[in-house]
Design goal:
Elements: H1 4-7, E1 10-15, E2 21-25, E3 28-33, E4 36-41, E5 45-50, E6 76-81, E7 86-90, H2 95-115
Antiparallel strand pairs: 1-2, 2-3, 3-4, 5-6, 6-7
C-alpha cells in the first residue's frame, strides 16, 4: 500500500499506454508499471530520462537502441532513484508524456529552490 504522507496529496492523473497510469502528487509520483503499483518521492530522484534514455544519462541503462530516437513515439520516463534502481512512469504518446516530463522538471526545480 502507498503511504500518502510520503507522496502527498494527489494532483493530476495521466493514463498511459497499455493500461498503465501515473499519479502526480505534491511530494512524488504513484504509478503502475508492469502490473506493479509503486511510488517515489521527488527527493529520491537522482536522474531521469525520457523514453529509452536517448542521451545515456542513467548509470545502469543497458538497453540497446535499435532505431533513432523519435520523440513522437515516447510514452515513458525512466527515473533512477538513490538506490540506483530504474523505475518507469508512463503517459500517452505525444503531448501527454512531454507534459508529464515538464511537470517532473518543474517539481524537481521547486524542490531544489526550496532546499537552497
Amino acid at each position: 500500500s502507498i503511504d500518502s504522507s510520503q507522496v502527498g496529496t494527489p494532483v493530476l492523473l495521466f493514463n498511459g499506454e497499455n493500461g498503465t497510469w501515473t499519479l502526480i502528487c505534491t511530494k512524488g509520483f504513484v504509478f503502475e508499471s508492469n502490473g506493479i503499483v509503486n511510488s517515489i518521492e521527488f527527493s529520491e530522484i537522482r536522474n531521469h530520462a525520457i523514453g529509452d534514455d536517448p542521451f545515456d544519462k542513467l548509470l545502469k541503462n543497458t538497453s540497446k537502441r535499435t532505431k533513432k530516437f523519435d520523440k513522437r513515439e515516447q510514452h515513458k520516463i525512466l527515473i533512477e532513484n538513490r538506490d540506483d534502481e530504474i523505475l518507469e512512469i508512463n503517459a500517452k504518446k505525444g503531448s501527454d508524456i512531454f507534459a508529464l516530463y515538464n511537470l517532473l522538471l518543474m517539481m524537481l526545480n521547486l524542490k531544489e529552490k526550496k532546499e537552497n
